[in-house]
Amino acid sequence: MVGTFGIVNLTRDSFSDGGRFLDPERALAQARTLVADGVDVVDLGAAASNPAAEDVTATEEIARLEPVVRTLLAEGAVLSIDTTKPEVMRAMVALGAQWLNDVNGFRAAGALEAAANAPSAVRFVVMFSKSRGPHAERLAHDPTALLDEIRAFFAERAQSFAAAGVAPGRLVFDPGMGAFIGRTAAPSLSVLRHLESLARPGLPLLVGVSRKSVVAEVTGRPVDRRGPGTLAAELWAARHGVDWIRTHDVAAFRDAWAVETAIGAAP
């Protein structure tokens, strides 16, 4: 079974749902909905990463996250914290968060150290991005080199984590999508098309394409109508070597994947 990360953005300006879950009670309600839908990991982010997003201090991120994290952990949820800041990483694993998810690939000063010092049960999603820092920048890409660039990044990050004392089994790699890897849909489509060339034993992959610009460019749909396009990309990824899907709509993916799996297993 492909695992799921369910997205909850405690932000004012996330591209798809900014402002909807900034209030802790609304964030908790959304997280509980995801848990009821069968999510494996609730992914909480308190600072948006789209190109137009505001900068949020570590102090503010922690303030937004802490009451929600404490409550959900007390209810038995498995939590991932989507952040690039070492201070936030340390604070959230101290509360008991089980995953850290960094769109900057733990490249910021102190981020790898924060990961290495986390309890041994904590796992990490290490994302490739052509940008450096907390925001996607829509940088140009070289279509002939992108996949090799991603493979080299994965290898370098795996080596860096190993040198820091982090066991390989604690890592999941994300090839990036949307504005993190290019200005148009083309690089995301290429990565999705060639996912099997990125997947290999001991290198679990996560894909997060939910509602992103690649879906918008292909379908022409506004953000609130990108569900079907998102699901098509997620099912493609699940068929082609991905271990985890990061999504806004956990129920849609789980139901679609269950039906596809049942069809594949029929005599």
How does this model look, in words?
- There is one protein chain.
- An 8-stranded parallel sheet has the order 6-5-4-3-2-1-8-7.
- The longest helix has 18 residues, at 146-163.
- The protein has a single domain (3-265), classed as TIM Barrel (Alpha-Beta Barrel), CATH 3.20.20.
- The chain has helices spanning 24-36, 58-74, 86-95, 111-116, 146-163, 186-193, 195-198, 213-219, 227-239, 250-265, and strands at 3-9, 41-45, 79-82, 99-102, 123-127, 171-174, 206-207, 244-247.
- With 267 residues, it is of the alpha/beta class.
- The mean pLDDT is 94.
- Helix 5 links the parallel strand 5 and strand 6.
Strand order of the largest sheet: 6-5-4-3-2-1-8-7
Mean pLDDT over all positions: 94
Instruction: Indicate the overall shape.
Output: globular
Order of helices and strands: EHEHEHEHEHEHHEHHEH
Low-pLDDT parts are none
CATH superfamily: Dihydropteroate synthase-like
Task: Calculate Rg over CA atoms.
Answer: 17 Å
- In the residues, how many domains can be counted? 1
* Biggest beta sheet summary: 8 strands, parallel
Number of helices: 10
Question: Helical percent range?
Answer: 40-55%
How far apart, in Å, are the first and last alpha carbons? 19 Å
CATH topology: TIM Barrel
Structural class: alpha/beta
Please name the defining characteristics of this protein.
267 residues, alpha/beta, TIM Barrel, eight-stranded parallel β-sheet, 42% helix
Nutshell version of this structure?
The chain is built from ten helices and eight strands. The protein has 267 residues and is an alpha/beta fold.
